[in-house]
Amino acid sequence: MKFRFLLGGRDLEMIEIRRLLQVHAQGCFHDRRLAWGAALSAYREELLDALRRGDTPVSIELADDLPLELFDRGRMVVVDHHGPLAGHDKPTSIEQVFGLLGLPAEAWTRHLALVAANDRAHVAGMRALGATPAEIAEIRAADRAAQGVGDADEAEAVQAIGARRQEGRLTIVETRSRTSSAIADRMLPEMGGPGFERLLVVMPDTLAVFGDGIAVDALAHAFPGSWWGGDLPFAGYWGMQASVQRDSLLHKLVAKLR
To answer: What angle do CA 121, 127, 129 make, to 5 degrees?
Structure first.
């Protein structure tokens, strides 16, 4: 079976997946350098070409937005660990790709283990592997950079956290930035932050929640069209576009989470 890998939105895990493929599957992957939240339609032609050649397309963290009648899903491998595929006992995307490549156990380095732990369970996952503060800071900085978080976003995160407010168990941070990564990192005690039980980051057109698995599960069921993942059922994150009726959605979130 010949795989044709289609790479999803960029973060540190996706960059490391690309590096593995460059070494072990050169010429058998496509990378359009998409942003997080990427969809399969970005690779429509590559997908159909792979199927015509008798290859097996491998969709890596790509939302399937193509028509059901376009091709037989049984001929495609889906690699993901978000939404219904998320969980403490579920392999991360890089672990799944590692397995598909048939690589030996000794090729699984500490760096790859930290990348996988970070992508599943953030800082807590790396701590569980015995990561040092320096390793945690390095992995988190590399992940933010891979997601396109720049100096302006980092500076905005500091200001936004300074203006945070509390609603019971819920910490609310409003930001002009369109990313929550810098805020979520800087709120953690391990990163010098004040800590939180449940965190809601309000961006111009997106809402993001970080916290316990009970909260994430409740939001996933209550709000169709949202996305979620993490170290479930213990802890995780949730997000949703909120450009329309944002105030109404925000009110509902605060009522559920505080």
So the answer is: 90
Q: What are 162-212's pLDDT values in tens digits?
A: 999 999 999 999 999 999 999 999 999 989 999 999 999 999 999 999 999
84 and 11, same domain (yes or no): yes
Look up the pTM and report it. Answer: 0.93
Q: What is the pLDDT of residue 246?
A: 82
Per the CB < 8 A criterion, the answer to whether 182 and 149 are in contact is: yes
**Same domain assignment for residues 155 and 109:** no
Q: What interhelical angle do 110-128 and 93-100 show, nearest 10?
A: 150
Report the candidate in 237, 224, 152, 225 with the shortest Cα–Cα distance to residue 196.
237
Domain coverage including residue 173: 150-257
Number of folded domains that form the chain: 2
The domain spanning residue 247 has which CATH number? 3.10.310.30
Provide the pLDDT confidence category of residue 36 given band limits of 50, 70 and 90. confident
Residues 6+ apart with CB under 8 A from 152: 177
| CA 172 – CA 202 distance, rounded (Å) | 7
